Fold this protein.
Amino acid sequence: MSKILVGLKRVVDYNVRIRVKPDGTGIVTDGVKMSINPFDEIALEEAVRIKERGGASEVIIVCIGPTDSQHLLNGLARGADRAIHVSCDAPVEPLVAARVFLKLIEKEAPHIVLLGKQGIDDDNNQTGQMLAALWNRPQATFASKIELDGTKAKVMREVDAGLETIEVDLPAVFTSDLRLNEPRYVKLPEIMKAKKKPIETVPIASLGVDSAPQFKTIKYEPPASRQKGVMVKDVAGLIAALKQRGLLA
């Protein structure tokens, strides 16, 4: 059986304004709407489309974090077949996540691992690359198009200079970019069906992965407030204002 393993990360919804705690020890999450990381939604959509085209027999979603099955149900409603929840109360760093995925790969033997290119909470953009290195398999990051052909995949990547097309052998790790696809809308009947799909809970310690953080965050601070803009009457006033601020010679 050909399987696709997809990572789903639970993050503060992208429509929510982030607020830093008064003591600077973190961000406010109490009562805040949490959602699937948008890049992970795209990764899951691509995995489901690959399965619908006959390129895989099973899509398995994986979440690493505190106990909360709501976003896993959402992922199952989007077309995943089953879910694995790796329970962990501590913040999960990219290397820890990569090691967890490696353990699950050893168990599930997928031919594709699809991850979002980054989480919108920490913006690390590291897990996919670290996993490929640990797994010793090819990687195709920032994918905007994936075409499977037997034991190979042709991937269009978004890079600084434009678009790059590469070919990799499977099994491989892919990370999704924004233009890979548009995730489907979840309807109520799919949510009801998702409640009958299996969710396996696995303590991170049972995988033999040390979840202790390597880095310590000293303090969180909100970005500096933007200065109020200056109104000018005409082009001459704009040029004068720019010269005054040293932005124009």
